[in-house]
Design brief:
Structural class: alpha+beta
Strand content: 25-35%
Number of helices: 4
Number of strands: 9
Distance between the termini: 36 Å
Length: about 180
């Protein structure tokens, strides 16, 4: 979860919650934020704990962003791992949602980033766009799509993307489609 503690006397507030996406126990592949996360058993517990931490940070004169990383059990019990006193790895997803879909984007959009290793090393951006074909779409003109965005890894065969969709299920469907295109490539 990411919060902002404002410079004014206003109350700290949640910007977004996200779920970290792993491939195996230690390989982080991305993050995703979606309105559906509020229905997860952990959400209300982490939100309440985060609000308490935000209020205490504000009392101690901290201002700006901070994020909380945590793990949760299926029953919703939350275990805080760390607090990052800065913009976090998912901040750009929130910025993307705000920019393209407006301040209420989390009522109807899912936005995530996902890294795809396993491409041939040294692909060009043009080759990546060709490989992904119709999955690459502008958020200004489509309800879902893949946006290649972190291209520095192409030399080593890794592509970073932002994926936007109308639901968590559609987000994961697009992730599978990108994997399939990479494997067929």
């Amino acid at each position: 979860m990411e919060y902002i503690v404002p410079d004014t006397d206003g109350a700290p507030y949640l910007t977004h919650a996200c779920e970290m996406l792993f491939d195996g126990p230690t390989r982080l592949m991305g993050n995703v934020t979606s309105a559906s996360l509020v229905h997860q058993a952990w959400h209300r517990h982490l939100l309440a704990g985060g609000q308490a931490i935000a209020a205490e940070l504000q009392r101690r004169w901290y201002r700006e962003y901070f994020g909380i990383d945590a793990v949760a059990r299926a029953d919703g019990e939350v275990f805080m791992l760390d607090l990052n006193a800065r913009r976090t790895g998912s901040t750009h997803l929130h910025d993307f949602g705000l920019q393209f879909f407006g301040p209420e984007y989390l009522t109807s959009w899912t936005v995530g980033n996902f890294d795809f290793p396993g491409l041939p090393e040294g692909l060009t951006v043009k080759e990546v766009v060709s490989l992904l074909g119709p999955l690459v779409r502008s958020p200004l003109h489509a309800r879902s799509g893949v946006v290649p965005c972190e291209l520095s890894g192409l030399a080593k065969g890794r592509l970073g993307t932002v994926i936007y969709a109308s639901s968590m299920a559609e987000f994961h469907h697009l992730v599978r489609q990108v994997h399939e295109r990479i494997q067929q490539g």
